[in-house]
Amino acid sequence: MNHSRWKTLRERKLAAGFTEPANVTETRRDVQLSMALAKAVYDRRTELGLTQVELAARADLTQAKISRIEGSDTVPTLPLLAKLAKALDATLNIALDNDDAQVSFTGHGTDAA
Protein backbone atom coordinates (compact mmCIF):
# COMPACT_ATOMS: atom_id res chain seq x y z
CA MET A 1 0.00 0.00 0.00
CA ASN A 2 1.48 3.36 -0.96
CA HIS A 3 1.49 6.51 1.18
CA SER A 4 -1.36 8.22 -0.67
CA ARG A 5 -3.65 5.29 0.10
CA TRP A 6 -2.73 5.40 3.80
CA LYS A 7 -3.77 9.04 3.99
CA THR A 8 -6.99 8.35 2.13
CA LEU A 9 -7.77 5.43 4.43
CA ARG A 10 -7.11 7.59 7.51
CA GLU A 11 -9.30 10.36 6.15
CA ARG A 12 -12.08 7.90 5.41
CA LYS A 13 -11.89 6.48 8.92
CA LEU A 14 -12.00 9.95 10.47
CA ALA A 15 -14.94 10.94 8.27
CA ALA A 16 -16.76 7.79 9.37
CA GLY A 17 -16.44 8.80 13.01
CA PHE A 18 -13.23 6.97 13.90
CA THR A 19 -11.37 8.74 16.68
CA GLU A 20 -7.62 8.51 16.67
CA PRO A 21 -6.06 7.72 20.05
CA ALA A 22 -4.67 10.84 21.76
CA ASN A 23 -1.10 9.53 21.77
CA VAL A 24 -1.24 8.93 18.00
CA THR A 25 -2.59 12.44 17.41
CA GLU A 26 0.13 13.93 19.61
CA THR A 27 2.87 11.95 17.87
CA ARG A 28 1.51 13.02 14.47
CA ARG A 29 1.67 16.70 15.53
CA ASP A 30 5.23 16.27 16.82
CA VAL A 31 6.36 14.69 13.56
CA GLN A 32 4.65 17.38 11.47
CA LEU A 33 6.34 20.14 13.48
CA SER A 34 9.72 18.45 13.20
CA MET A 35 9.25 18.07 9.44
CA ALA A 36 8.21 21.72 9.09
CA LEU A 37 11.38 22.83 10.87
CA ALA A 38 13.51 20.48 8.76
CA LYS A 39 12.05 21.91 5.55
CA ALA A 40 12.51 25.50 6.74
CA VAL A 41 16.19 24.91 7.59
CA TYR A 42 16.81 23.14 4.28
CA ASP A 43 14.97 25.80 2.26
CA ARG A 44 16.86 28.69 3.88
CA ARG A 45 20.22 26.91 3.63
CA THR A 46 19.77 26.20 -0.07
CA GLU A 47 18.42 29.71 -0.65
CA LEU A 48 21.74 31.00 0.69
CA GLY A 49 23.66 28.48 -1.40
CA LEU A 50 25.23 26.86 1.66
CA THR A 51 26.22 23.24 2.12
CA GLN A 52 25.49 21.44 5.36
CA VAL A 53 29.20 21.71 6.22
CA GLU A 54 29.17 25.49 5.68
CA LEU A 55 26.03 25.94 7.76
CA ALA A 56 27.50 23.76 10.50
CA ALA A 57 30.62 25.92 10.61
CA ARG A 58 28.52 29.11 10.80
CA ALA A 59 26.42 27.67 13.64
CA ASP A 60 29.33 26.03 15.48
CA LEU A 61 27.69 22.64 15.01
CA THR A 62 28.66 19.46 13.22
CA GLN A 63 27.51 18.53 9.73
CA ALA A 64 25.91 15.44 11.28
CA LYS A 65 23.79 17.64 13.57
CA ILE A 66 22.62 19.72 10.61
CA SER A 67 21.80 16.51 8.76
CA ARG A 68 19.76 15.23 11.72
CA ILE A 69 17.85 18.52 11.93
CA GLU A 70 17.11 18.52 8.19
CA GLY A 71 16.13 14.85 8.39
CA SER A 72 13.64 15.46 11.25
CA ASP A 73 15.71 13.07 13.38
CA THR A 74 16.14 15.42 16.34
CA VAL A 75 14.23 18.02 18.31
CA PRO A 76 16.47 21.06 18.68
CA THR A 77 16.58 23.13 21.86
CA LEU A 78 15.81 26.84 21.87
CA PRO A 79 19.52 27.78 22.12
CA LEU A 80 20.25 25.58 19.10
CA LEU A 81 17.39 27.20 17.17
CA ALA A 82 18.86 30.61 18.02
CA LYS A 83 22.25 29.47 16.66
CA LEU A 84 20.59 28.26 13.46
CA ALA A 85 18.69 31.51 12.96
CA LYS A 86 21.88 33.53 13.42
CA ALA A 87 23.86 31.24 11.11
CA LEU A 88 21.12 31.52 8.49
CA ASP A 89 21.03 35.33 8.90
CA ALA A 90 17.32 35.13 9.52
CA THR A 91 14.50 35.40 12.00
CA LEU A 92 12.87 32.08 12.90
CA ASN A 93 9.08 32.25 12.74
CA ILE A 94 6.98 29.51 14.31
CA ALA A 95 3.19 29.67 14.26
CA LEU A 96 1.31 26.95 16.13
CA ASP A 97 -2.46 26.68 15.90
CA ASN A 98 -4.23 23.45 16.82
CA ASP A 99 -3.28 20.96 14.09
CA ASP A 100 -1.44 23.51 11.96
CA ALA A 101 2.24 24.37 12.37
CA GLN A 102 4.12 26.79 10.15
CA VAL A 103 7.87 27.27 10.43
CA SER A 104 9.90 29.66 8.31
CA PHE A 105 13.05 31.73 8.28
CA THR A 106 12.79 35.35 7.18
CA GLY A 107 16.09 36.68 5.90
CA HIS A 108 17.51 39.89 7.29
CA GLY A 109 18.03 41.20 3.78
CA THR A 110 21.74 40.47 3.45
CA ASP A 111 21.56 37.08 1.76
CA ALA A 112 25.20 37.02 0.76
CA ALA A 113 26.60 33.62 1.69
What does this molecule look like?
The chain is an alpha+beta fold and 113 residues long. It has one domain: lambda repressor-like DNA-binding domains (434 Repressor (Amino-terminal Domain)). It has 5 helices and 2 strands. The protein has a two-stranded antiparallel sheet with strand order 1-2. Helix 3 (52-59) packs across helix 4. It is elongated, with a radius of gyration of 17 Å. The N and C termini lie far apart (43 Å). The model has no long low-confidence stretch (mean pLDDT 86).
Mean pLDDT: 86
Rounded to an integer, what's the Rg over CA atoms? 17 Å
Q: Could you give the distance between the termini?
A: 43 Å
- What series of H and E elements makes up the topology? HHHHHEE
Unreliable runs: none
**Main sheet, how many strands, which sense, barrel?**
2 strands, antiparallel
Approximately how much beta-strand content do the residues carry?
Answer: 5-15%
Q: Which homologous superfamily in CATH is the superfamily?
A: lambda repressor-like DNA-binding domains
CATH topology: 434 Repressor (Amino-terminal Domain)
Count of distinct structural domains: 1
The CATH architecture classification is: Orthogonal Bundle
What is the highest CATH level, the class?
A: Mainly Alpha
Q: Got a strand count?
A: 2
Structural class: alpha+beta
Shape, principal axes of CA atoms: elongated
- The number of helical runs is 5
**Roughly what percent helix?**
55-70%
Give the neighbour order of strands across the main sheet.
1-2
Pfam family, one: HTH_3
Protein name: Helix-turn-helix transcriptional regulator
